[in-house]
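REVIEWER CHECKLIST
Item 1: Sequence provided? yes
Item 2: Single chain? yes
Item 3: Sequence as submitted:
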Amino acid sequence: MIRPTPRAVAVFGAGIPLAFAVLLADPDLWPYVPAYLFLACFALLADAALALSPARLNVQVNLPPALYIGVPEDFLVRLEPASHRRPEVELLCDVDDNLEQPARVKAPLSTDGATQVAFRLNAKRRGKARVERLWLRWLGPFGLVRRLRIVELGQEIAVTPNTQAVKHTALQFADHMALFGIKPQRQQGEGSEFEALREYVPGLDPRSIDWKHSARHHSLVCKEFRSERNHQIVLAFDTGHLMSEPLEGLTKLDHAVNAGLQLGYVSLRAGDRIGVYGFDSRVRQFSQPTGGVGTFWRLQRAASELDYSPDETNFTLGLSSLAARLDRRSLIILQTEFVDTVTAELMLENVERLAGRHLVVFVCLQDPQLAATVGGEPASLNSLARSVIADEFLRERRVVLERLRRLGVHCLDVKAEQIGPALINRYLEIKRRELI
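Item 4: Structure as written out by the authors:
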């Protein structure tokens, strides 16, 4: 495809005032006017003929097989012309709404081989993202025409939860005993599950002495305990419209899913069983808690299938259905969102009912814009009004969280970048205190 450039339009446009000037100066010079137009057309055709032909430009696209949500990744385009002409090529990539539009890229073709151009892909939502087509254009040697080539791609890329943080967590907890200490060691007196008997030495807790076995062995022996395992943990995700709100480049649901996968890996390494539950106006998903690090792929697949919903969350249906599905006391990680005390009343009522039998950790994310609005200096009456309203929202949020704490619910109200470590630390604290 060939298109004229603004330079070509200017060249032909300059012929009009030039023709009037020539005719006004001397009417006998009129043959120079068509001669100028002929030269302009000749230059245009010559520029089109000398420009690199799209058929002689080899284009190879290497798309990544998958993208992690919130983690930009490059895909490479390899350009190799079968000609001595090496113009500067401008590239543009068309993507669907699940991906951020990549920036235009300009790359001069290398004189000694192929040229590689990188596009930065950044997924906004989980699911399937589609790269539609690639646009390439370059100028002729005179800059009068622009050659255009469109490469239809139509390829889909799977967008999955961010498991890179899980890999980092896996390196931190490479040894299963690292969950209970800096080094692999047996910590006596740290749990309630009996593990072994050992000879008593000064410095051990005298309360751990087993007098019956000491009498039998004619020496003091004490009991060693370890933290109890095989607990049942449920990652409960609110998939309603409030969780689809973007925060720090991702939706709140994606932040919750990423943190849940980190916690899932740690809990599986600790010997616990973990499942996934998703709900909004109805129950969207439930996977039975399973144990073993080898089942992490099931957890990842279940979390990946949690879809965004425009519906309002029905806490009565969602939490009562969850309670009916659990046949033993469990640790429930409820990741949700609320607006104010009025909309949170039904949530409080159902969380209280759920906390009567199970241990509930309530997780929500702080909105930095609210804090910035409250702390910013009001420059006008409207900004002052926004600051007052934002402060009221934060006050009601603190009221709801305080009511939850009085019900015995563990609350986490943290920033988006802190949710993963904060959730793991609270889980380890619960394990240490044996609250399950």
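Item 5: Key structural point noted by reviewer: The CA atoms of residues 126 and 159 lie 5 Å apart.
Item 6: Recommendation: ____
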